[in-house]
Amino acid sequence: MKMTGLILCTTLLLSEAPAKVDSDKSIPKKDYCVSEQIGTAQLGRISQITMGADDTLYALASNGKVMAFDVDGSLATTIETGMENTTAIAVSADGNVHVFATLTKAKKVKSGARMRTVQVPIGVECGTFDPTGKPLGKKLLDNLKSAKTAHFVGDTLVVADLSARALIFMEAESLEETGRIKKGLRLCCGIFDFCEAPDNTIAISNLGAFKLQRFELDGKLISEFGKRGRGIDDFQGCCNPVSAGYLPDGRIVTVEKDPTRIKIYDANGKNAKKIEGVEELVKGCSFIPVAVDSLGSIYLASDTKGYIVKCVPQD
C-alpha cells in the first residue's frame, strides 16, 4: 500500500535567519512541513505508534492489530495479535514486537443515588511477536495495573502505568521491576506518555504540571522546562504537552492538544517554533502519539481520523 493524501509541503520558516549548524552535532537545523498521510482508512482507532529498526513505523490499533510501514509509507507487515484492549507497543533491539493489553474486571460503584458497573484495570498482559508477526508467547505483568506507553531503553523496559500513576522500570529479559518514578507526576485526561531521550534517559510529558521532565533510569531528575501560558514557549490549555520526542540533532518536538500545536524547541527547551499546516488531529482532551525517525521525520497519529500525519525536514 502506498501513501495517500495531498502533499502539503510549503516553505515554512522556523527561524528568521538562515539555518545554522549545531556545533555539537554538525547537522543543519532544517525547517519542517507537513508531507503526507499514512495508512488512510486502514488503521482505525490508533492507541500508540513507535519506531523500530530501519525506521520502520509501527502503529497499534485499539482492536489489537499492528501495522508496520516502511520508510516510504508502504505497508510492510500486519500482525493480528488476537489481544483485546491493547494500549501500548514497544519494539526491542532484536526486532521483536511487544504489545501490551490492560486487563480489567467489572466493579460496581455508586454514582449519585444509583449503582453502576465500571471496568477497573487489574493487570497487564504482554504479547511478543517476531518481526514477521509470529507469536512468541504471552506474559502477565502482575506488577502493573495498566500500560499507556512502553519503550525499551537499552536493557530496560519502561512502562507508563496510568492507574498506578507511576513510570515503571523493568529488566528487559526477566521483566522484574527495578524501580519507579511516582513523585511529582500530575497526570490529566487519562494521558501518560514519555519518550526516550539522549544517553539512555527518558523524558516524561508531565502534562498536568505543564512540563517536559528528563530523568535518569534511576529516577534522578536531570532537567525540565515548560510552564502554563499563552506564549509560544508555554504550554496551553488545561494540560499539555501530551507527548514529545527528540530529533537527531538534539532538538525537542512537543505535541499539544485542544487545539493541536506541534512545536520544536532547542536542546535546552527554549526558542520554540511552531510547525505550520498541521490539522486539528483530535477533539477535546485526547492523546496524540508522536514518533521520530533517524532522518528527523515526525509522525503524528490521530485516534479518531485513523491515519498518521508525517512532517518532514525541508532541504
Q: What labels describe this entry?
A:
mainly beta; single chain; 315 residues; four-stranded antiparallel beta sheet
Following the backbone from N to C, one meets helices and strands in this order, namely EEEEEEEEEEEEEEEEEEEEEEEE
The percentage of residues in β strands lies in over 45%
CATH topology call: Neuraminidase
Label the structural class: mainly beta
Distance between the termini: 26 Å
CATH top level is Mainly Beta
Radius of gyration: 19 Å
Q: Label the overall shape.
A: globular
Work out the helix count. 0
Percent helix range: under 10%
- From the coordinates shown, what is the CATH architecture? 6 Propeller
How is the biggest beta sheet arranged?
A: 4 strands, antiparallel
Give the integer mean of the pLDDT values: 88
Specify the CATH homologous superfamily.
TolB, C-terminal domain
Domains (count): 1
Low-confidence stretches: 1-8, 10-28
| Strand element count | 24
Strand order of the largest sheet: 1-24-23-22
